[in-house]
Design brief:
Order of helices and strands: EHEHEHEEEHEHEHEEHHHHHH
Number of strands: 10
Number of helices: 12
Number of domains: 2
Radius of gyration: 19 Å
Helix content: 40-55%
Strand order of the largest sheet: 2-1-3-10-4
Shape: globular
Low-confidence stretches: none
CATH class of the largest domain: Alpha Beta
Strand content: 15-25%
CATH topology of the largest domain: D-Maltodextrin-Binding Protein, domain 2
Mean pLDDT: 95
Distance between the termini: 22 Å
CATH architecture of the largest domain: 3-Layer(aba) Sandwich
Length: 284
């Protein structure tokens, strides 16, 4: 049995992995796929790839492109979710802020440096024509940390996937005053180069299994109800999320990578552009 470690955020996007693991789809192929939820998100997963603490990460595209550019010895092997991630822009429900325009120069809660919550703050700043060079950040690690920070006034707003934060909005803890979709496919599957070199066939089989699962995921009977129960969400919210979400079974194209890197470079999130061969593993 080949043991492979994989990490991802504990969100509905990754439920196809949970189904495949529970059905023993990987064990049937002699693979012990060990999944770990990482609520801290992209920055933490980038560090785990660098430190060899995980073999695979299902990770935000912009975050891993930035980190591979900065020396992370990993490669993107596939797009996982083709559709954009819709980031909600949230404030404390009792705050005075009523529009995104009021958030100029206000402190932003982020999970950690290099996280999607930080990178998308730069995207939002550009969308608002703000100077993004001096954005003030407060590191809060998790959504729970963001709740504490916004409630206590340690930060002013927090950007996170809008459906995962919807329960906090419904409870009157957060108030959503805007949205900021990613201008690229939101999640990719990334593997450490050492693992690709030594276990290429195992990685290929893992991708084959998850791709079969994502192809049929939306057609699973009562899947909206199952997801709503599992993630403490309203069924109608999950149904809307499912209608907006498209999984992918394809690799990142040179054209898409160029588009992503050009935008990250323009936002000064990266200071150089890597080659396609440096970032994407294209032999699968």
């Amino acid at each position: 049995m080949k043991t492979i470690k994989i990490v991802g955020v504990p969100e509905h996007f990754n439920f196809p992995w949970q189904i495949a693991i529970e059905q023993d789809d990987f064990k049937k192929e002699n693979i012990d796929l060990q999944w770990t939820n990482i609520p801290e998100g992209t920055g933490k997963m980038c560090q785990m790839l660098r430190d060899g603490e995980t073999d695979i990460a299902v990770i935000l595209t912009e975050g891993i492109v930035k980190d591979i550019n900065a020396g992370n010895p990993s490669k993107i092997v596939q797009i996982y979710v083709e559709s954009p991630l819709i980031w909600g822009i949230h404030v404390d429900a009792k705050s005075e802020f009523q529009s995104v325009s009021q958030l100029k120069n206000k402190k932003i809660a982020i999970s950690r440096l290099g996280s999607g919550s930080q990178l998308m703050a730069f995207v939002n700043a550009k969308n608002q024509n703000w100077n993004s060079e001096d954005l003030p950040f407060e590191i809060v690690n998790t959504i729970d940390g963001a709740v504490e920070s916004l409630t206590n006034g340690g930060s002013d707003y927090f950007m996170w996937e809008k459906f995962m934060t919807k329960p906090l909005v419904d409870k009157g803890i957060f108030r959503k005053i805007g949205e900021c979709p990613t201008p690229w496919p939101c999640f990719v599957i990334t593997v450490r180069e050492e693992v690709l070199k030594n276990d290429f066939e195992t990685i290929s089989k893992i991708l084959e299994i998850i791709n079969l699962q994502t192809l049929v995921f939306k057609s699973i009977k009562n899947i909206a109800t199952v997801l709503a129960d599992h993630f403490n969400q309203k069924t109608e919210d999950i149904q809307e999320w499912l209608s907006l979400t498209e999984w992918s079974q394809n690799n990142l194209s040179p054209e898409t990578l160029n588009k992503i890197q050009n935008q990250l470079f323009d936002l000064k999130i990266i200071d150089k552009k890597g080659t396609f061969a440096e970032i994407v593993y294209n032999k699968l």
